[in-house]
Amino acid sequence: MHQLQILKFPGRLVMCEANAYLLKDGKEELFLEDLDTVEPDNGGLRLTSIFGEQKFIKGKISSLSLVDHKVIIEQTDE
Amino acid sequence: MHQLQILKFPGRLVMCEANAYLLKDGKEELFLEDLDTVEPDNGGLRLTSIFGEQKFIKGKISSLSLVDHKVIIEQTDE
């Protein structure tokens, strides 16, 4: 289990995070919040949040925009 | 051009970032620091840092570990 990513400084805590979105008909649909890892698994992707929530999807990572906190996943369920 | 991601709080600035690594012979080799976007481009990936530096590679995003600030790219130059 991963630790939360916490940047420490005097008297303050900050977390860095992104959300995973599914690309559907050109629109982005929220799939998993507070994303930590995305790993290849069984021909698809296993996503895990910083809280340990897991989701599997047949798809691939299409694009990233970390400044916008976005990981875009494209479904490939042919 | 993207803005730097800056979390503001009283008297302090923090940036959230990740680095892109190439997976080579099972080892991770630093490819681009301070990654912002990864976008599909011409059969490969175009990576852009938060400072506007760009790199192109024939490859795909293999995995992410955002808590570890890692984006792992697998080269596909067949």
Describe this structure in words.
The structure is a homodimer of 78-residue chains. Chain A is an all-beta fold and 78 residues long. The first copy, chain A, has one domain. The first copy, chain A, has no helices and eight strands. In chain A, the strands form two sheets. The first copy, chain A, has a six-stranded mixed beta sheet with strand order 6-5-4-3-8-7, with no helix packed on it. In chain A, strand 5 and strand 6 form a beta hairpin. Chain A is globular. Chain A starts with 5 loop residues before the first strand and ends with a strand. Chains A and B meet through strand 4 and strand 7 of A and strand 4 and strand 7 of B. Strand 4 of chain A pairs antiparallel with strand 7 (59-65) of chain B.
Short account of what is shown:
The structure is a homodimer of 78-residue chains. With 78 residues, chain A is mainly β. Chain A has strands at 6-9, 12-15, 18-24, 27-41, 44-49, 54-57, 59-65, 70-75.
Considering the chains and any ligands shown, give keywords for the structure:
homodimer; 78 residues; mainly beta; 6-stranded mixed β-sheet; disordered N terminus
Helix/strand order of chain A, N-terminal first: EEEEEEEE
Give the percentage of residues in beta strands of chain A: over 45%
Largest interface, C-beta closer than 8 angstroms, per-chain residues: A-B, 28 and 27 residues
Please state the structural category of chain A. Answer: mainly beta
Q: Which runs of chain A of at least 5 residues are low in confidence (pLDDT < 50)? A: 1-14
Main beta sheet of chain A: strand number and arrangement?
6 strands, mixed
Spatial strand arrangement across the major sheet of chain A: 6-5-4-3-8-7
Beta-strand segment tally of chain A: 8
Helicity range of chain A: under 10%
Radius of gyration of chain A: 14 Å
